[in-house]
Amino acid sequence: MKRASNLGKIFVAIFCGLVVGAIAGAIHWMILPHDQSLLVHVMLGDLVAALTSMIVCLAIQLRQEEVHFASAMSRAAIVSELNHHVRNAVFPLCLAVQKSGDKDASQLANEAVERINVALKEATADAISGRASYADDIHPKNGSLLVH
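Now predict its structure.
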């Protein structure tokens, strides 16, 4: 998967370079006199422009990937912190229910914990993939997450 993605980026960069080179070459061909030595030098310059645009295109794609990775790591850290706080809050409740010895209450607590686990897994997947943004849901006064 990663190799195909990198190959796609290389093809995009090559395509962009070819477009820049072809447009520059066509413009120079139309506006300059058809002196062979002049056209050779200008076309070499257009080739350099095409190669430079390929490098710039790859650099832009690399920077975008770096920003995306940093953003994904930030979202994962937020969800990890949320996961930690939720589990710390639920753990004493589960211990109290288990200590009471009521089987119905224990089953209910286990089902609730399982629902929390599923919700946290889904939230983690959403945060890492970028489908959900938790940064916009921070309470301005106390920094806690807002519940919708």
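The first helix runs from residue 2 to 31.
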